[in-house]
């Protein structure tokens, strides 16, 4: 797979695009200014936890958690090239840390500002927000056992999928979801539970599905790590029963 933000990296290496040498900085934006910029085509990167994002976020925002060790790579992997970005933080004081991380890939130059006061300011200003229901692995298992109309979409890496999966699950790596969404084997009108290893990448995938017209999306908290720990049934790629996932991979691969 190509490195995150490869086009930007090549341009920087060739001297066609400058790399930020000083400490990066960005603008402070009010809710109205954010709304206006969204109307002009800016995208929103909500860097909060999957739980906070699920409780309420700006419609159309990407959820890419700042706490992930892969934060800047994930921004580079899933967002469209060259489109200006607005950050939503859990704490305004973390903006500089986020910019510093993004600067490693030259992505800080796309950040046009951050929403001062975060989602509380957005909601208090009367702007719309939307939610993503969070589903435990036990709840998902019960839905599947009871024959409810629930699809499962697994968005982990291929090696993780091969290691063990929910038998009924569909598969697409979250990194390819935005560009290959038309190839999904689940329909926009279906109820879809999205799973990764721990609930972070699946929340990113949920945000991408929502901005592409999928209506009934659920983020599975704890992901396949919790599913395996609960002793719930899994199979490998050949359909053989799997009782336990292999030893965890490095932390950035886990969530």
Question: Can you describe what's shown?
Answer:
By secondary structure, the chain is α/β, with parallel strands linked by helices. Helix content is 33%, strand content 16%. Strands 1-5-4-2-3 form a 5-stranded parallel sheet. Helix 4 (71-78) crosses helix 5. Mean pLDDT is 90; it is low at 9-14 and 250-254.
What labels describe this entry?
alpha/beta, 255 residues, 5-stranded parallel sheet, single chain
Strand content: 15-25%
Largest sheet: 5 strands, parallel
Mean pLDDT: 90
Please estimate the helix content: 25-40%
Number of strands: 12
Q: What is the rounded distance between the termini?
A: 19 Å
Q: Tell me the radius of gyration.
A: 19 Å
Order of helices and strands: HEHEHEHEHEHEHEHEHEHEHEE
Number of helices: 11
Please state the structural category: alpha/beta
Low-confidence stretches: 9-14, 250-254
Strand arrangement, major sheet: 1-5-4-2-3
- Global geometry: globular
Report a brief summary of the structure.
The protein is α/β, with parallel strands linked by helices and 255 residues long. The chain has helices spanning 6-13, 31-39, 50-55, 71-78, 95-103, 118-124, 137-145, 158-163, 177-180, 200-211, 223-229, and strands spanning 28-29, 43-46, 62-63, 85-88, 111-115, 134-135, 150-154, 170-171, 191-195, 216-220, 234-235, 241-242.
């Amino acid at each position: 797979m190509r490195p995150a933000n490869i086009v930007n990296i090549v341009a920087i290496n060739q001297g066609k695009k400058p790399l930020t040498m000083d400490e990066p900085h960005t603008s402070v934006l009010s809710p109205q200014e954010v709304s206006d910029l969204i109307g002009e085509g800016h995208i929103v990167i909500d860097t909060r936890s999957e739980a906070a994002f699920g409780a309420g976020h700006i419609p159309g925002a990407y959820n890419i958690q700042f706490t992930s060790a892969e934060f800047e790579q994930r921004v580079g992997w899933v967002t469209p090239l060259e489109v200006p970005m607005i950050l939503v933080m859990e704490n305004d004081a973390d903006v500089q840390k986020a910019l510093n991380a993004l600067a490693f890939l030259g992505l800080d130059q796309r950040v046009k500002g951050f929403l001062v006061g975060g989602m509380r300011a957005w909601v208090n200003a009367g702007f719309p927000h939307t939610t993503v229901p969070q589903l435990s692995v036990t709840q998902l298992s019960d839905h599947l056992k009871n024959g409810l109309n629930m699809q499962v979409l697994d968005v982990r890496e291929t090696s993780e999928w091969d290691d063990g999966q929910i038998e009924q699950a569909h598969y697409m790596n979250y990194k390819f979801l935005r560009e290959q969404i038309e190839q999904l084997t689940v329909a926009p009108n279906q109820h879809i539970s999205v799973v990764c290893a721990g609930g972070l990448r699946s929340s990113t995938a949920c945000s991408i599905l929502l901005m592409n017209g999928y209506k009934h999306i659920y983020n599975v908290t704890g992901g396949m790590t919790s599913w395996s720990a609960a002793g719930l049934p899994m199979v490998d790629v050949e359909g053989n029963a799997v009782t336990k996932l292999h030893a965890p991979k490095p932390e950035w691969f886990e969530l």
